[in-house]
Every structure is written in C-alpha cells, then in structure tokens.
Amino acid sequence: MPKAQETLLEIDLKALKQNFEHLKSKLQKSTKFLAVVKAFAYGSDAEEIAKYLENLKVDYFAVAYANEGVALRKAGVTTPILVLHALAVNFDLIIENCLEPNLYNAKILNEFIAFASAENQTDYPVHIKFNTGLNRLGFSNNDVDSVISKVKETNAIRVTSLFSHLAASEDLHEKEFTLNQINSFKKIADNCTKLLGYKPMLHMCNTSGILNYPEAHFDMVRSGIGLYGFGNSEKESANLKPIASLKTVISQIHTIEKGESVGYNRAYTSNKFLKTATLPIGHADGIGRIYGNGKGFVTIHGKKAPIVGNVCMDMIMVNITDIDCKEGDEVIVFDANLNSAETLAESANTISYELITSISQRVKRIFI
Ligand SMILES: *Cc1c(COP(=O)(O)O)cnc(C)c1O
What we know:
Layout: E1 8-11, H1 13-24, E2 32-36, H2 38-43, H3 46-55, E3 60-63, H4 66-74, E4 81-83, H5 91-96, E5 100-103, H6 106-118, E6 124-129, H7 144-152, E7 157-163, H8 175-196, E8 201-203, H9 207-212, E9 220-223, H10 234-238, E10 244-249, E11 252-256, E12 261-262, E13 268-269, E14 274-279, E15 297-300, E16 303-308, E17 316-319, E18 330-334, H11 341-347, H12 352-357, E19 364-367
Parallel strand pairs: 1-19, 2-3, 2-9, 3-4, 4-5, 5-6, 6-7, 7-8
Antiparallel strand pairs: 1-10, 10-18, 11-14, 12-13, 14-17, 15-16, 16-17
Helix pairs in contact: 7-8
This protein binds pyridoxal-5'-phosphate.
Pyridoxal-5'-phosphate (PLP) is lined by residues 36, 84, 165, 206-208, 222-226.
C-alpha cells in the first residue's frame, strides 16, 4: 500500500472473504448466512460489501431501514434483503424495491397487510419477529394465536421467516438467560409453524450467537460485526481480521512552550515543552469528542501519540514529543494489526461497533 496522504478508510476485501469463510465454517452446510450490512456495512461501504458478498453467494442481507435497502437495489444487488426496522411510512419503498419487512407488532402487521392488499400483492415475503427478552422489537409469546390468525386471513403476505434476537450472546455469564431465550423461541416457532401449516425459516443468532450457541443456529444466522473482523473474545477475534483501516497524515507540527495551550477552550495547557502534530481528522469524520484530552491516541511510526486537548470538527492535535516524525508522514488511527478499533474504542469506554459505524461519509473509502 502507498502511504496515506489524506484521511482514508482502507477496506480489505480479502479479509472480508476470510471472515465470511471462517464464520461459515462454524455452521452446518444447510444453514443459511444472512449478512448484516446496515449502517453502511458498519461504517465501511454497504454497496461494495454487499456486491462482493453476493458474488460469494451469501443467502440474505439485512439492513436496519428501508432507505438502506433501496441503496443496495440501486447498486444492483438482487439477493433478498430483510428490513429489520420497517416503518409504515416506507411501505411503498419496501414493495417497490422488493425489500422484505420485519413485522414486529400488531400495528405494523395490520398496516402492512392492508398496504400489500391494496397493492394487489400475493404471498409478499415478510419476516415476523418475536421478543424473547431483549425487549426492543417483537411480538410476545402471547401474540402467537392472534398473529397467525391474522396472517392466515390474507393471501397478501407469506411468512418467510420467524426470528428473534439475543440480548447477551457475547456474555457467557448470561448463559442461563440466553438458553431461556433460545427455548422460548423454539416453543414460539413450533406453535407458529403448526398453526401456519407451512414451515418458515427460523433464525436467532448474531455473530456472538454463532460463536457461542451452535444449538441456536436454526435455518439461518445473521452476522454483522464478525464479517467486519471482530469476534466476542480474544480467541475468536484472532480468527477474524478487521477489514477497515483508518489512516491519515501529519498536516503540521508545532512546538508548544511551557504555559501555552493547545486547541479550543484552551482545554490543554502544557506544563512542559511539547511537540504536537495536527491531523486532518475530527469529530465530523467520526472521532468523537470523547476521544479528546488524552483518552484516544493514534500511532505514528509504531508509537502511540495521544490526542491533546479537545477534538475539533475537522482536526485533532496529538502529542509527538517523543516520536521522530515530520509533516507528511502517515498516521494510523486504527488498523487490522496492533492498533485495533477495539483498543481505541476501549480508550473511551465504548465498543468497536460504535467507533467503526461513526466513520462519516466525508472519509474517502478505498478498496484493496
Ligand atoms: C445488528 C443486528 C445483527 C448483527 O449483529 P452482530 O453482533 O453485528 O453480528 C443481527 N440481528 C439483528 C436483529 C441486528 O439488529
């Protein structure tokens, strides 16, 4: 790779393929794989990632919101796309783009049936979600009878899948709770299937579920973070490779004398001589203010350079007092090696999911 001369998010498609293959190796041959590409494929690039995975014969995609699915269709993606958080205002977009809604409560179920009927749809594919403990979206187990009778009254929709979501699949201290969720889901799915008279696909596992609960793989699994290179433990992460590296460059170097301040609000005042580098990346690029004032750091020539003072909208200043570097040198914010997004996220008490999905659309993406 040539050295970065501006802020770049490098996306390694070979790593994506390796992660996909590694996760698939954990599944039975017949288990389908749904790739979660919501939020720009976790801050990378949903269109490129989806097209690449489509070539690798992934079975399904999921997005959070309808407009994310529309973007994939515009890019030529033809694989089925589940919209995890369907909203009534988007039903026209959903049907126009052959997107498949998650129907999670009576209101959205009734409204979708009415909408699809008015559009003369028959057997329109939908997915029904049950809440088994996350208490976020989904019908309760008490709704089984009413949901299925509603579905059977109409030929506008057909239930492609029944699903649920685990609340703590990464946390083995919550194993009992998770096994309860799995059992409830099994019961709900059995009842629904009996009442329906046909067999929808069942799915429950996110990445950590895939790794920790093989008994809950059912007909399909839904993986996001694992595809992008993060597991739920050091051991699992070692088998995966982060696909994204965030790099930038030193724009300017300053020497700061004792008593001078650095940046907005004079948040840092030095009590000794300091050398700082100004970098062309700020909170508008996804490095939140939470990383400022010594919490977050970047790496220059293999050495840690902590952020000095407040994060600005378009820039940060980092401490390079002990680093032999010059203007124009490359800076690693995170990469697939020692400087992982997970470590940087931990420096500010957050998680890799948040850091990587925050990298804004201003940052140029390049694919390797
Ligand atoms: C985001 C999401 C996933 C993917 O979870 P990972 O932990 O990233 O694998 C799966 N299912 C649902 C319902 C989600 O919202």
